[in-house]
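Is 4'-phosphopantetheine placement plausible here? Inputs below.
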Amino acid sequence: MKKVTAIYPGSFDPPTNGHLDLIQRGSNIFDELVVAILRNPDKDPLFSVNERRNMLEELTHDFKNVRVDTFDGLTVDYAARVKAHAVLRGIRALSDYEYELQMALMNRKLAPELETVFMMPAEQYSYVSSRLVREVAHLGGRITELVPELVERKLREKLDPAIKLQNVRKVKAGKR
Ligand code: PNS
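Reply from A.M.:
I modeled the complex. Tokens:
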């Protein structure tokens, strides 16, 4: 029987519980799921591509049919390179639909054989986005339950100047 591979492309800056929920759902229906982080030089990301990759690898460690990769250029070209049959994207609310529909149709124009599959994350994550998580974390708000514990810790390390300074000192002292 044909093995169905899907890619789940995105920025993942940072990965949220909504992303993880979708990865879990995707891994249940596809034989192989590749979480593909866009290396986008135009954006000024909070986490480097490597930091995001490391976080996602740790978070998806238990899903045996999920792997993490990075890409640049067109999503459809990347999909062809890894021989994917589908692109997985999450739709949280109606507001996501217009952009996602536009992207899916453009991707279909570029690569008619590639299907886009939309899945809905659990309703408790329907308002969670990486952008809002970054903003709330920046301003000192609580992001527990919105992101995995690992991401919460990394965000705190990144945004808390005192912790940042401690880490720099540890690196200098060769403790990390
Ligand atoms: O997590 P995001 O930022 O919503 O993901 C957007 C992403 C990475 C899926 C989209 O920007 C993308 O596919 N970029 C790659 C360039 C490309 O293929 N552009 C045409 C899309 S129709």
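Short version: The chain is about 45% helix and 15% strand.
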